[in-house]
Design a protein that fits this description.
- The structure is a homodimer of 190-residue chains.
- The first copy, chain A, is an alpha/beta fold and 190 residues long.
- Helices cover 31% and strands 35% of the residues of chain A.
Chain lengths: 190, 190
């Protein structure tokens, strides 16, 4: 998606060797109209897949995933990293290690939200090492649903995430594929 | 908002004395079309306020806040509970105690996202004890912005949140005001 690459160059910030800051339009300050375009783009890519639900991981992927689910006319499921008294205590869990945030967390989904009749599209903001995506795939498969694909806004192509997700038999779609961040902070695309 | 009250009665679950589970359409599984209606309702309520930004607290308020920001044609800012390498390290912070989740956390916003020229609307899923809202108000005022109001989808009117937010000179708008959860789990509205 050309518009996303341009926005990353204009408003994002690269920090050598592996950081891409897009906090001013994707995951801290969010541009809703642009998220709508992104959601539309992803929905179009998977239009033939008869998707029943969009799934994202709390919390940076919620905005684009919501717009995508809205376009597809299906519910959005937010996989939770934390227990809450406001949510059902009956959940399926899996453990995820995050390199980006430097921690280990439980990813969970309330029982009954996804089942063997579902064909699911995963949407997240970043694809880097692929841990969050792999955790989501594991959790969705534990619920016996099938997976149409994994869509990320920004892929760090110099990290192994795409390979890891693809190896699990899941199609990867990335809107912007970063090949390199140079020592002076220049962001380059594939 | 009548439609929200009806949906809470039909799909939500009350647990005596103070729990309202709406995880199957608001904060775990999200109904995007319904979120769109909710965003529209809130945007309409504050249409005359010349709002420059919508602010929410990570993560259950993101979906309705995004739809509201989209309707108002302004950016959404997600106040963060956790540091991340993908975000700017230069932030303003405040500490919040959450009764619902039973923890203490730092709420932060990257410097430069909100300033004295902003007139901000806060949107969140719940208004209960008002800690998250109070934290958001404190943080926004630290950034020297003004606040148009605090909008919540579900207010627990038997808890002190509304009073606390109002006492700080901020208008509260709640789409569904729950007066009581009876011992048999019936949810009653004001």
């Amino acid at each position: 998606m050309k518009a996303l690459e341009e926005k990353i160059l204009a408003q994002g910030k690269g920090i050598y060797p592996d950081i891409i800051q897009v906090g001013n339009f994707i995951n801290h300050q969010v541009d809703p109209a642009f998220m709508n375009e992104i959601g539309e783009d992803i929905a179009k890519e998977f239009a033939k897949e008869a998707i029943t639900k969009v799934v994202t991981i709390e919390s940076s992927g919620i905005a684009p995933a919501l717009m995508c689910a809205y376009k597809l006319g299906v519910p959005l499921i937010i996989l939770k990293k934390k227990a809450s008294r406001n949510l059902s205590p009956n959940v399926t869990r899996t453990e995820v290690t995050s390199f980006t945030k430097g921690d280990v967390y439980d990813l969970s989904i309330a029982d009954g939200l996804i089942d063997e009749n579902d064909h699911v599209l995963i949407v997240d903001d970043f694809l880097a090492n692929g841990e969050a995506g792999t955790g989501a795939i594991r959790l969705i498969r534990k619920c016996h649903a099938t997976i149409a694909g994994f869509a990320a806004l920004v892929e760090k192509s110099f990290q192994p995430g795409r390979q890891k997700i693809t190896d699990q038999g899941v199609k990867v779609y990335a809107l912007a594929r970063v090949s390199e961040i140079t020592p002076d902070g220049t962001i380059k695309f594939l």
